[in-house]
Amino acid sequence: MSAESSNLSNIEHRAVIKYFIQKGNTLKEIFEDMVSVLQESAPSYTMVKKWARLFQQGRESCEDDPRPGRPVTVVTEENVRKIEKLVLADRRIKL
């Protein structure tokens, strides 16, 4: 397998771990299989251990859980026009 084709995303790594857990492989077997195939792009033993535990506890999703924090801001034409209108109306406006 070439180095380019062995670069998997985190979600793909988790799906592989989930498959091996459902197959009944041990944590050591999972990690060794992933390292033998993915080499340097394999997840760390700690990450394999974490996700294996989560899947053994019944987790189904391979996606990250949503995290609290600052919401994603979006730049849209409508927002740009509104801000431009505010600035043109009062050049001394401060946020």
TrEMBL record:
InterPro entries: Mos1_HTH, Transposase-MT_Hybrid
Domain spans labelled Mos1 transposase HTH: 14-58
Gene3D superfamilies linked to this entry: 1.10.10.1450
Pfam family, one: HTH_48
Domain of life from the UniProt record: Eukaryota
Protein name: Mos1 transposase HTH domain-containing protein
Lineage: Eukaryota, Metazoa, Ecdysozoa, Arthropoda, Hexapoda
